[in-house]
Design brief:
Blueprint: E1 2-5, H1 10-27, E2 31-34, H2 36-39, E3 60-61, H3 64-69, H4 71-74, E4 88-91, H5 99-102, E5 108-111, H6 124-130, H7 139-149, E6 152-158, H8 162-165, H9 167-173, H10 178-189, E7 195-201, H11 204-210, E8 217-219, H12 228-237, E9 240-242, H13 247-254, E10 263-266, E11 285-287
Parallel strand pairs: 1-2, 1-5, 2-3, 4-5, 6-7, 6-9, 7-8, 9-10, 10-11
Length: 289
C-alpha cells in the first residue's frame, strides 16, 4: 500500500492525494490516508476539515490502530529512526520536485505537500474524472455555471482569511497586491475578448469593496465555507483564470478543461524568498505581486 499524510485545506489535500494516487496506480496497490492532522493540527496552523471525502476517491482512511502505529512516522525525529519505522518514510525536501517521491515503492509513507503537477501530470485524465464532487451542484451553482458557459469567463481568486488573521500564516504566505490583480487582468484582456469576471474570495466583503474593474463582474459568494468543493467546481468551469498564491485556486485552474486557457499566477508564492521552481506549470503566465 501507499500511505499519505493529509494536512491543510482542500487545495493542499488534493496535491497530497494526487501525488499518492499516481503511485498507487503505478504499483496497483491500495491507497491509505493518515488523517491524524485534522484532529491534531500543529501549533500555529489553521485547523481544517478533511474535505477529500467530498469526492468518490478510491482510498480508505487509516484506522485508529494504524494511526497509533504510525506515530513515529509523523514525528520530527522520524528521519533518524528509519530502521525502526513500520513503513518507508518519504519526506518532502525543499520546494522543488523530489525524485524519491516520484519513484516511491509500495510500503511508503508520504509526508509533505507535493505542490507540483510533476507528481501527477501523467494521470491527469484519471484525476479529471475522479475529482468530481459526489454532491450535485446546488441551484445557485447551476445558474452561475450557465453564465460561465455563455461568456469569456475568468475566475479571479482573492485569498485572505488566515493570511490576514493568523500572524504565522501572514508572515509566511503574504498577500497578492491590488497591483497584481490589475496587471493580471491586463494580461487577460490582451488575450481574451470581452472577459467577464467571476470573483471568489474567503473575504467577499473586502473583495467587493476593493476590487473594481472595467469588465462585467460577478461576486460568487453564495456557498458556505464548508462547501468549498462547490466553489472549486465553479472555478474549474471558467475558461480562464487569475489565481492567488493559493493551492485552492491553483486546483480551480488546473481542473479546467478549456483548450488554450489563459492562466495567470503570482510570480512570488511566499512572502519571503522561497523559490518554487516546479509549482506553476510553464504554460501559465507569472506576474509579479
Amino acid at each position: 500500500m501507499i500511505v499519505f499524510y493529509g494536512q491543510g485545506g482542500l487545495g493542499n489535500q488534493l496535491f497530497q492525494y494526487a501525488a499518492a494516487r499516481r503511485l498507487a496506480l503505478r504499483h496497483s496497490c491500495p491507497l491509505v490516508l493518515d488523517p491524524h492532522w485534522f484532529d491534531h493540527p500543529r501549533p500555529g496552523e489553521t485547523p481544517r476539515p478533511l474535505e477529500l471525502t467530498r469526492f468518490p476517491l478510491a482510498m480508505r482512511l487509516a484506522s485508529e490502530a494504524e494511526q497509533q502505529h504510525w506515530t513515529l512516522m509523523r514525528g520530527r525525529l522520524a528521519r533518524y529512526a528509519k530502521p525502526f519505522l513500520p513503513l518507508r518514510l518519504v519526506r518532502e525536501q525543499g520546494l522543488g520536485v523530489n525524485q524519491k517521491a516520484l519513484a516511491a515503492r509500495p510500503g511508503s509513507y508520504l509526508f509533505g505537500f507535493w505542490q507540483s503537477e510533476a507528481y501527477f501530470a501523467d494521470i491527469r485524465d484519471y484525476l479529471l474524472k475522479e475529482l468530481v464532487p459526489m454532491e450535485s451542484p446546488a441551484t445557485a451553482d447551476l445558474e452561475v455555471m450557465a453564465q460561465m458557459a455563455t461568456c469569456s469567463s475568468v475566475s479571479l481568486h482573492v485569498r485572505r482569511g488566515d493570511y490576514v488573521t493568523l500572524q504565522s500564516a501572514a508572515s509566511y504566505h503574504g498577500l497578492c497586491s491590488l497591483d497584481y490583480y490589475r496587471a493580471a487582468l491586463q494580461h487577460i484582456a490582451e488575450r481574451v475578448h470581452n472577459p467577464t469576471l467571476f470573483v471568489f474570495s474567503d473575504d467577499p466583503q473586502w473583495a467587493r469593496t476593493h476590487l473594481s474593474f472595467p469588465f462585467p463582474t460577478h461576486h460568487v459568494d453564495h456557498n458556505r465555507p464548508e462547501d468549498a468543493f462547490q466553489d472549486l467546481r465553479l472555478m474549474s468551469h471558467c475558461k480562464h483564470h487569475i489565481i492567488a498564491n493559493s493551492s485552492f485556486s491553483w486546483w480551480g485552474a488546473w481542473l479546467s478543461t478549456t483548450p488554450n486557457s489563459t492562466v495567470v499566477a503570482p510570480a512570488r508564492w511566499y512572502a519571503a524568498e522561497r523559490p518554487t521552481p516546479d509549482l506553476i506549470p510553464t504554460r501559465w503566465a507569472r506576474i509579479n505581486t
